[in-house]
Amino acid sequence: MKELKKLNKLFARYKWQIIGGVIVTIASRILSLLLPKYVGKIINLLNAYGQGERTDLDAVESDLLLYIAIIIGSTLLAAGLTFIMRQLIIVVSRHLEYDLKNIIYQQYQRLSLSFYKQNRTGDLMNRISEDVSKVRMYMGPAIMYGINMITLFAVIVPAMINTAPTLAFYTLVPLPFLSVAIYVVSREIHKRSTLVQQYLSNLNTISQEAFSGISVIKAYNLAPQMNAQFEQVANDSKNKNIDLARVQALFFPLMVLLIGLSNILVIYIGGRQVIAGEIEVGTIPEFLIYVNMLTWPVAIVGWVTNMIQQAEASQKRINQFLDIEPQIQNLVEETTPVAGSIEFKNVNLVYDDTDIHALKDLSFKIKAGQTLAILGKTGSGKSTILELIGRLYDVTNGVIEIDGTPIRDLNLDDLRKAIGYVPQDAFLFSDTIGNNIAFGKKDASEEEIEAAAKNAVVHKNIKNFTLGYQTVLGERGITLSGGQKQRMSIARAIIKTPNILLFDDCLSAVDTETEEQILNNLKKVTQDTTTIIVSHRVSSAKNADQIIVLDDGKIIESGNHHSLLEAGGYYADLYANQMLEQ
Ligand SMILES: Nc1ncnc2c1ncn2[C@@H]1O[C@H](COP(=O)(O)OP(=O)(O)OP(=O)(O)O)[C@@H](O)[C@H]1O
């Protein structure tokens, strides 16, 4: 229960509903006790009349009616209270589930990029859905049935002992066995259903991957292999389901068997006691009802124990994520405006997970409003520089200064607000084109959205869609071409009018003519903006105030277009090659 303790704070939010639920449960259980008591009384009454001990038929009939009325009244009232109990406790568990999901989601949002590199999306999804629903079973049903069971026992067992102690003993003896048996069966059910879940998630992963890569599958004619792979996993999944069904089928027969055993004991021992004159005949039906009232809660002990164990395991997995402190922390509360000059001083970055030394003693400087272009082979560390400026990672050593202040001493929100970042892999949400562009600036007007799209040279494309800016994009914006996606992503960055613009190879999928147009537009709208352009093309870099060429995390050349051409190194070769290609 150590892990589940973390939920106590959440429970405290709903303490009145929970206390109300407990009181109502106790009241309803006490009321339900009247049924067996009065059934016993009716049998004794009829027996007395049959034996000639009571002869006044009118009095017997009126007693009978009174007893029946008490049974009906108490049962209706108990049912009403049970309804209220469920309303209170199950409804609270839904609120708690909602709260817990929000807490986890907010924590996911806080966590740094490195966390997402280390954990699989499926796992993140599972903890917020599967695990939370297991914990809800503890917060609602397990607690409700637990309280129900305890009060029922506290009420019925003394009543039984009070009425007939010997019979009570024999009736109660099989119940612990029932409880253990149900526990064993439900543990087995849990084991097998976990396997079923695993196979189901394999099946989902395979299908999801197949749908995402459908064009590759078709182009390589891989459909038969994919079908065979799916069939194999689906077959395994079916077998696991059959295994589960087999054990599940045991559950009810087992209960019926043990209830039957208790009933027979009541009739046999009770019958002998009636013959011996130790108890009244009405005690037998009274006890039969007690047994049936107790069986479900007893069976549930095993089930509830299992639910709590599963919730404990799930909460442990949830706590693992909740207890992680984000690697990137905002260390500054006060606002720190960002103008845009950037300096790297002997910056090194080693990625924790791969130990790749991506940047080695890197130093360079850009004044606010200037443009820097970064070129270099793939994997030389270009994107890493941009990620460090946005503090998606912290440097391993060295310092990055913005406006002369170390980046860690800037308010993280202010820093990120000052940056417009266009990643290499343009990501668009399943929303309208207009909203995707306005994502960078929530209160953007239609005119501003259009102006940004015009500057990113994508306005005409958007206008060609029947619904224009209202066109809804599919998952990952699949209805758009690569170049269109990149330009939308540029529009999203420039609409913010940030002080620092970071372009990560985001013109790679547009033709050189459009590239030229975009760069010209950018020059106009980003005159005072510090701009860093990462590219493989000289055409994107040539007009920059400063150009650096990276190789294996180090600067191998720096200067401007002319000085680098004169130097006759990597840049000059690249220029010559790319001029030839045109
Ligand atoms: N999140 C990460 N975790 C671990 N290693 C990484 C991570 N991102 C990049 N790397 C590694 O760091 C090195 C530099 O990568 P980076 O993406 O900065 O190169 P790049 O110059 O932008 O390459 P490209 O031109 O292909 O985009 C590469 O060896 C890469 O494998």
Automatic annotation (TrEMBL):
Membrane topology, from the record: Multi-pass membrane protein
TM region(s), chain numbering: 16-35, 64-84, 142-161, 167-185, 249-269, 289-308
Primary location group: membrane
Record-linked SMART domains: AAA
SUPFAM superfamilies hit by this protein: ABC transporter transmembrane region, P-loop containing nucleoside triphosphate hydrolases
Sorted UniProt keywords: ATP-binding, Cell membrane, Membrane, Nucleotide-binding, Transmembrane, Transmembrane helix, Transport
Pfam families per UniProt: ABC_membrane, ABC_tran
ABC transporter domain location: 342-577
Domain ABC transmembrane type-1: 19-310
Entry-linked Gene3D superfamilies: ABC transporter type 1, transmembrane domain (1.20.1560.10), P-loop containing nucleotide triphosphate hydrolases (3.40.50.300)
GO CC terms of this entry: plasma membrane
Entry's Gene Ontology molecular function annotations: ABC-type oligopeptide transporter activity; ATP binding; ATP hydrolysis activity
PANTHER family: ATP-BINDING CASSETTE SUB-FAMILY B MEMBER 10, MITOCHONDRIAL, ATP-DEPENDENT PERMEASE MDL1, MITOCHONDRIAL
Name of the protein in question: ABC transporter
Organism of derivation: Nonlabens marinus S1-08
Highest classification ranks of the organism: Bacteria, Pseudomonadati, Bacteroidota, Flavobacteriia, Flavobacteriales
